[in-house]
Predict the 3D structure of the following.
Amino acid sequence: MKFLLSLGIIWTLLNTAEALDCLMCRDFPQCEDTFSGNCSSDELCATAAIRLQQMGSSLLINTKSCVPPSLCDVGNGTFSGSLGFMRVVGSVRCCDTDNCNSQTLPIPADQESNGFECYSCDSSTCRHKIQCVGVEDRCFNGNVTHWNTWAPTVHVFGCASSNLCVAFSHLSSASLPGFDLNGPNCCEGKLCN
C-alpha cells in the first residue's frame, strides 16, 4: 500500500505543470522596455512583430507576452489578414522555457497579390471584391459590436491566412478593448464569404 501511495505522489509531482516566466512589454507599441512576468500554468511565451496598415499609414507593433497554447497552433511564421481598408501582417514565435521570448522579430515585408479574392464590406454592402496578398488563402466573415449600445453591429469580411483562421477558430467570440467580436468564420475558395 505504501508503495502505491509513493508512486501516486511521485506521479503527481512529475505531472504538475509549472508556470513559465515570460518577458512582457512595459511600453507600446515598440516593446523596448520589458519585464519578466509569471504566466498561468497553461500558457506559453510568445513574441510577435505586427504591421497594421490603414489608409496609407502604418503602425509597427512589437510585443512579448503569455498566450494560450491554442494561439500557438498557428505555428511560428507569418500571418496576415485584410478587411480591404485595413491590413494586418505579422510574424509570431512561441516557446516553452522561461523568458525564451527575448528576441525581437522582423516586421514582415510588404506582400504581393496572390490572385485570391474575397468579399469585403464598404459603407453599403459586403460584396466589394478585394485582392488577397502573400499567405492570405482563406476568406472570412464576422461581426464587430462597439460596447456603446447606440453603435450598430458592423459586418467584417476579408482575406486571412490559414494560420490566422486557426487562431480565429479558438476565439469564436472575443472582447477587444471597447468591442465584441463574433466569429470570424473562415472558408476556403475564392469569394466564399
